[in-house]
Amino acid sequence: MQQEYYLLRTDNTGGEQKYYAAFSDSNGIRQEIEVSREVYLVLGEYRRDERRQLHYTERHHEQLELSEMQLAQRIAKLPVPLDDLIVASVDMQAALLQLTAVQRRRFLLCCEYGLNCQQIADKEGCTARAVEYSVSTAKARLKKYFEE
Fold first, then answer.
1. 101 CB contacts (<8 Å, ≥6 apart)?
2. What is the pLDDT of residues 64-102, one digit of tens each?
3. Spatial separation of the C-alpha atoms in residues 101 and 47, rounded to whole Å
4. What pTM value is reported for the model?
5. What is the DSSP string of 49-111?
6. Cα–Cα distance between 81 and 3 in angstroms, integer?
7. I need a labelling partner for 108 at 20 to 30 A (CA). Which of 19, 49, 123, 139 fits?
């Protein structure tokens, strides 16, 4: 079973909808923070993409016999736990919101999961050039966001 790095929940106390993200900090202490609806939605989409990718990997790579070198390469490419991303850079969440849903998904698949453009294109049923363009545009928009 996949380890959950963060949990999402909503609360409708007092008639106002509030959104929360809970995670364990670097000391292993469970923390919960209130987040905006937009961040909540991005985290939910990230979680769905993360699970989709895990299921895809399990279905297509489960029967493979891997060498120690291949295993080491895969371990090196494991995504950073999301709680580290939240603690390290709340700005990254705001920056990701500047991207379209397609750009955000393709950027995360490329940069977080290490998939190449052709693998993403096969998964999404489009051309590798379209994926390359989306990832390139996303990187440019993120760079511009952090330079401002």
1. 45
2. 455 555 556 665 665 555 455 444 456 677 778 888 989
3. 14
4. 0.42
5. HHHHHHHHHHHHHTT----HHHHHHHHHTPPPPHHHHHHH-HHHHHHHHTS-HHHHHHHHHHH
6. 10
7. 19
